[in-house]
């Protein structure tokens, strides 16, 4: 048995996209224990809810995360709408679903690129980000923003998408679908990718369940849990099926995301085919009074918004639990027993977003 | 397991056109509804202050007495709420971004002096 040393990893580290700090207890080159620390980018966005009108806060809720921005605003609006008993028009629900799936595609493609970069596969990294750019172009053409859409409001959506534009979007997705499939094939079959990630950072199904893993981290370990199955927004009418892999290693977490990009393309196509006509927003009168837990499936996993309001225009309490926070205990479990050189790849596979974990 | 899976794509990229735009020689992509910056047609403004009240980042200051409209471009988050709530539709979103700056970016718009009769009408409309 060798001597134990502690190596600090992060918060500023070349491979980490976000400031998470890990104290790695090493025995020779092997990790015995990892102690995570967060708290470097706290912005106090939850406190801000006491100072802003609940309708204007949608735009701040959107800025909790720079990648799953639209999903945050939809979850916040869902909570307010349930408290106030607002029935959101069907067309608004469908368009919200389309934008949520678009943000899932761009988030996953971003992550796939980062992972390829972390294992030194620069060509694949550029390929994933080029595809992401195509998705972002459609986002900007329909919402006016690339990653901050600003298109959700309490009671509906701000902007409609014309039927012509919806047709164009589907045509564009049909055009890039072969490229997405090619990228998926590379992640599934390429020797470099498999050699780097197969059997690394294994999280068993029981551990994933006990430690509260969510999103692709849980689905890569064989847990069939996806909030979209509950049918919020328009997911209930689109015949949604979760993507589940069973090995629980880094490669399976990667493949879940890679397959979900294709599943998102299917969902968008189905949503456009079923798109109802009608208004895009419901008039909102009065202030919310009550409390509600709203759940949604972000690209990174299950997200919860808790809202408590007392009938005034400022909300009393807003609490957000983001997927990264719940994925840190499974991450600590995954890190036990792996080599020091594998730590960056394993940390990346939970898709850490510390910006939204600390808000 | 396969090897050289990326080769076909890499060769296609080698002979194909670059995927990136040669910015700034080629202008960046813009769409009709891209949110770049806010402008105001001050001659139509009635100085009701709706934009100031709804501005999430408190970037807009409207002075009814002095007939001025002021925006802090560095505070503005370009959400487009002011353009939506404007009763006269005199605030617009332009698709291009404002130029970068090292100091403050306050923009001060002075409205035309009010004709003595016209001043009462906008107040009645509110």
Q: How would you explain this protein's 3D organization?
A:
The complex is a heterodimer of chains A (359) and B (126). Chain A has 359 residues and is of the alpha+beta class. Helices cover 46% and strands 14% of the residues of chain A. In chain A, the strands form 3 sheets. Chain A has a 3-stranded antiparallel sheet with strand order 1-2-3. Chain A has a 3-stranded antiparallel sheet with strand order 6-7-8. In chain A, helix 3 runs antiparallel to helix 4 and helix 3 packs antiparallel against helix 9. In chain A, 51% of the residues are buried. Chain B has a domain of 82 residues: Alpha-Beta Plaits (2-Layer Sandwich), CATH 3.30.70.3270. Chain B has a 3-stranded antiparallel sheet with strand order 2-3-5, with no helix packed on it. Chain B has a two-stranded antiparallel sheet with strand order 1-4. The chains are: A alpha+beta (359), B alpha+beta (126). The interface between A and B is medium-sized, with 29 and 22 residues.
The largest beta-sheet of chain B arranges its strands as: 2-3-5
Shape of chain A: globular
Radius of gyration of chain B: 23 Å
Indicate the proportion of strand residues of chain A.
5-15%
What average pLDDT do the residues of chain B reach? Answer: 81
Instruction: Indicate how many domains the architecture of chain A comprises.
Output: 1
Question: What's the SSE blueprint?
Answer:
The complex is a heterodimer of chains A (about 350) and B (about 130).
Chain A: E1 4-9, E2 21-27, E3 30-37, H1 57-62, H2 69-84, H3 90-118, H4 122-143, E4 152-153, E5 156-157, H5 163-189, H6 191-197, H7 205-210, H8 216-219, H9 250-273, E6 289-298, E7 301-310, E8 317-321, H10 323-335, H11 343-348, H12 354-358
Antiparallel strand pairs in A: 1-2, 2-3, 4-5, 6-7, 7-8
Helix pairs in contact in A: 2-3, 3-4, 3-9, 4-5, 5-9
Chain B: H1 7-15, E1 37-40, H2 50-54, E2 60-63, E3 68-72, H3 81-85, E4 91-94, E5 106-110, H4 120-125
Antiparallel strand pairs in B: 1-4, 2-3, 3-5
């Amino acid at each position: 048995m060798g001597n134990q040393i502690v190596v600090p990893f992060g918060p500023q580290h070349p491979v980490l996209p976000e400031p998470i700090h890990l104290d790695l207890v090493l025995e020779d080159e092997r990790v015995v224990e990892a102690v995570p620390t967060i708290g470097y980018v706290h912005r106090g966005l939850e406190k801000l809810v006491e100072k802003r009108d609940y309708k204007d806060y949608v735009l701040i809720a959107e800025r909790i995360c720079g990648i799953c921005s639209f999903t945050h605003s939809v979850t916040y609006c869902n909570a307010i709408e349930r408290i106030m008993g607002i029935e959101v028009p069907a067309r608004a629900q469908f368009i919200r679903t389309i934008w949520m799936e678009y943000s899932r595609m761009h988030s996953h493609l971003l992550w796939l690129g980062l992972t390829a970069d972390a294992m030194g596969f620069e060509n694949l990294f550029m390929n994933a980000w080029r595809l992401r750019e195509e998705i972002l172009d459609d986002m900007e053409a329909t919402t006016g923003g690339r990653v901050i859409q600003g298109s959700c409001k309490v009671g509906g959506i701000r902007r409609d998408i014309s039927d012509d534009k919806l047709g164009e979007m589907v045509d564009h997705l049909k055009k890039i679908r072969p490229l997405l499939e090619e990228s998926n094939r590379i992640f599934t079959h390429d020797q470099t990718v498999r050699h780097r990630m197969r059997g690394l950072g294994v999280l068993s199904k029981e551990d994933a369940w006990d430690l509260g893993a969510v999103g692709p981290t849980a689905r890569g370990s064989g847990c069939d849990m996806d909030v979209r199955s509950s049918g919020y927004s328009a997911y209930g009418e689109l015949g949604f099926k979760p993507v589940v892999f069973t090995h629980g290693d880094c490669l399976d977490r990667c493949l879940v995301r890679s397959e979900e990009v294709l599943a998102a393309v299917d969902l968008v196509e189905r949503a456009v085919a079923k798109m109802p006509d009608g208004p895009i927003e419901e008039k909102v009168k009065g202030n919310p009074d009550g409390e509600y837990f709203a759940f949604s499936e972000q690209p990174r996993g299950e997200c919860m918004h808790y809202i408590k309001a007392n009938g005034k225009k400022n909300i009393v309490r807003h609490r957000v639990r983001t997927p990264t926070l719940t994925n840190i205990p499974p991450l600590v479990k995954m890190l036990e027993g792996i080599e020091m050189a594998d730590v960056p790849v394993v940390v990346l596979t939970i898709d850490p977003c510390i910006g939204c974990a600390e808000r | 397991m396969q090897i050289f899976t990326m080769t076909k794509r890499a060769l296609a990229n080698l002979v194909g056109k670059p995927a990136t735009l040669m910015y700034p020689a080629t202008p960046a992509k813009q769409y009709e509804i891209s949110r770049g910056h806010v402008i105001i047609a001050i001659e139509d403004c009635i100085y009701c202050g709706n934009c100031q009240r709804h501005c999430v980042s408190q970037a807009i200051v409207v002075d009814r007495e002095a007939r001025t409209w002021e925006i802090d471009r560095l505070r503005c988050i370009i959400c487009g709420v002011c353009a939506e709530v404007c009763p006269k539709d005199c605030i617009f979103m332009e698709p291009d971004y404002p130029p970068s700056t090292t100091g403050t970016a306050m923009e001060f718009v002075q409205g035309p002096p009010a004709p003595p009769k016209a001043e009462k009408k906008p107040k009645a409309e509110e």
